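Risk register update: the risk that structure generation would not scale has been downgraded. Supporting records follow, first protein first.
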Amino acid sequence: MKTNPKFLLIFSIFILVSMACSILGGDNWISSVAFSPDGTLLAGGSTNGKILIWDPQSGKIRKTLRQNSSIESVAFSPDGKWLASGSSDLSVTIWDTSDWSEEKIIQHEKPNTGETTHVRNVFFSPDGLYLFSLSNIYGVEILDTKNWRLVKNLGIATRGDGAISSNGEYFAVVSKDGNTVMVYDLKSFEIVFQPQFEESSWDHYGIAFSP
């Protein structure tokens, strides 16, 4: 009987994440996972501020990275050179995967509004030129990966997710109210499409482009 490789991959991820939850203990859990582009590493961000780097083949932890607040999102750059993480303290950290040193920490000031804050998501553009940072306070920020400087803030706060089309032409994000999607042209940074979800008592967070 043949075994589906995709099933084995999913099962392996499940085992690794289950093991990680046992290692972390208490009320801590894995909040985000990401494979390196070549598939040799799996990063998992946790609510206790740790990022675990696994070897997916052996299941062994290769490296443990530490921060001071809950990790909300992790993402590898397309060339595998960088690992980015977004945290609940409104910071974005870029790690050099060659030695796991901190290349850059971008720390946003936390407002005194009492509102729960977080960098909800981080991800790279398909060409690796930009890093996107999504937060419920500072909105959608686009950073230049050559110097990690801000290129553009799209001016929309979000507590949901975002996605880039595979050709790198469009970016979509769910608004903070959870009911509207804004699709941007990444050359002009103009909204080209703005669909809305049907009226509902539920918020919407996830969004994705087809390949």
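Supporting record for the second protein:
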Amino acid sequence: MSVRKELLLKDEECERLSKVRDQLGQELEELTASLFQEAHKMVHEANTKQATAEKQLREALGKIDVLQAEVQALKTLVLSSPTSPVGELPSVGGGGVKTPFRKGHSRNKSTSSAILGTQPDPSATQPIVRECREVGGFRGVSKAVQAETSLGANCCHVQVDNQLFSDFKTWKEEPVLDRSCCFLERVYREDIYPCLTFSKSEVR
């Protein structure tokens, strides 16, 4: 009896262990499947991110190429286009060369043609026009200075009147609208008044 009872207990123990084994095997399979699914999901997300990054990189490189082409085109356009009306300025250097005839009122020589003196760096005269435009009280400050700046930027041999440049720097430090100022007096006398003086009486 004792042996049979012991065998029954052994059978029950084996059955219980078999159930535990089957349960652990099922859990292991589920865990393995879950790990494979998670790994597959991570790989898919990584591939998607890589593809998106590569696409964005190609788009960025394409935009860079387009921008570089536009910049190059703008540079070419700027270099090929005249930046100042040189043809309308008085001829420089003498030699008997006459400017082309233009219909209408022609402007007299003014501070724009006062080019006696030393030759300044064109980059040093460019801030003059910008400084003049920033002064709100006098918007029409000397087209002569602008003409000298444009002419100096395009023609290396052009020279600027040192006295005019000195008067302008003095006026720039303390801008006034008084015509007794040397700079403004010269602007009125050589730039404004000649434009308001017409040789034909019917246009006065």
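Residues 112 and 144 are 4 Å apart (CA to CA). On this basis the risk owner (M.S.) recommends closing the item.
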